[in-house]
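Retro notes
What went well: the complex prediction finally ran end to end.
Inputs used:
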Amino acid sequence: MRDGPRHRNGLGNLADPKLIEKLSDWLEASGVYELEIRNADGQSLVLVSGGSRYGGKRHAVETATVKAPFAGHFLTAGDFAVGRFVKASEVIGLIEIGPLRLPLSSPSTGVLRDIKARSGELVGYGTALFIVEPTP
Amino acid sequence: MSTAEASRSKRRFDTVLIANRGEIAERVKRACLALDVRPVAIASEADAAEAAAFAEGGPICIGPATASKSYLNQAAVMLAARVSGAGAIHPGYGFLSENADFAEALERSGLIFIGPPASAIRVMGDKIAAKRAMLDAGVPCVPGPGEPLPDDVVLIRRMADEIGYPVIIKASGGGGGKGMRVVRASDEIADAVSLTREEARRAFGKPELYMEKFLEKPRHVEFQVLCDEHGNAVWVGYRDCSLQRRHQKVVEEAPAPGIDPALAAATGARCAEACRQIGYRGVGTFEFLYENGAFFFIEMNTRLQVEHPVTEVTAGVDLVVHQLQVAQGEAINPAAFDRPPSGHAFECRINAEDPDTFAASPGRITLVRFPTAEGVRIDTHIHDGYRVPAYYDSLIAKLIVHAPTRAQAIELMRKALAETRIEGIATNLPLHMKIFNDPDFIRGAVDIHHLEKRLKEGFSADA
């Protein structure tokens, strides 16, 4: 979505929670994962399906999402909690399919910003599981 | 222990993974619930949002929109069965339903494939082996030697005389209308053979020729069979599916009009016999061409068919329930199927496509209204706000009517079509309306070229 044309739009204040809510609904409904919007005042908003980040006049922070590569039961690994520091390719979770366990690694070094599924939950292909905010 | 509990404890599976999408996934789910079996749905990313309300817990998303990475991905389907605790997989139609390797992989992994054994899928999937198996069982096939023609023209003429004219001579490497010639009399054989052989040599590099009986205006008539693993095999009625466009069926009916019931019964009985001989299990369909009062076997479909409802309503059976029961190891009672069909049924395949250009018409359906009346059945997965994805087959609903006579069924279908509203996308509803007002179709027994001819010339209602 980030490569899309940046034409001016008629959106008002991007910090308006009602607008953010509406955009989030559209995002969810369309299956689009991420959307970046800029209004006439140079305000920018990055919406990530299932949550959003108001970017003010600054460019929003990039985050990386770890998605389920297969349908299976999601398990968290170790004591990973939101706010913790993670290293690139560190195993932060597992997908369990019967006797099989597939590791889920962090795509980059940074801070674990969100865990989107409960441990033990059945998740499908493409379900967002972890949001990692890389440290510069 | 109650009787219900006792029968449940003997079951081979209590959860079925439905490895399909759309209306057939809904249809299989209904049969599962009727038998107190838990259905588990799967979905691609393109279907996941729409299918959310499908079953308790929603569908398991198994892959991206592309069918080869989701509904056709054998590993992903099997892993989904594993995580959901399913003991059996119902493949529906299309996708993995006639894949012998998939059936075998399930058998090996201890999962039950709701369909025939892999060996039967393999035999019937090979055209030459299938024809041989059918001839062994006494099922009539398109007459012809089934092997390349000899060089000697005198010998070829004798074979053609025996088959009866017209015959068609085909280059074995040919296809799409090239390298074939229809011969209508004995004295045309020599020229036709030498010309076709020369064409075959030049165009396909292979001078090999085949010959078989040429059917000019055949109808497509098919027989439904049902078999268990205890050696019981029955035929459950026959359908006429002659209304086709580019080999895709558009309207089906049961029973096929104007066919001697005694001939149909004899052919159906041979199909059942063929099933016993190849060790068939589950439901299946024998497809025939029918011309001048004779049936010629063309192929067998080793799965549930899209048009199974017209047989269900006229035979008074639930084929999908029987499929599940047979997969549980239950025996069928042949006597229960030994009765003539009741009334007449039609099915219209409603597709998301332009009724004139036939271009697919994906998109959001803003409004759906189906008729509710005695004798009307709707098999569908769509609803107000449903988004038809562009990735799959355009079938969005099946409109089925059942009435005491064919004329009454036509009348009922006209009414049902008139009351059906699907807005927001284009559908082929207007085409169905034309078909049910076409005098030749109303008279019955049109051949497989009829619809294409009408589409080219225009329906008389247009004139």
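What we learned: The mean pLDDT of chain B is 92.
What to try next: split runs per interface for comparison.
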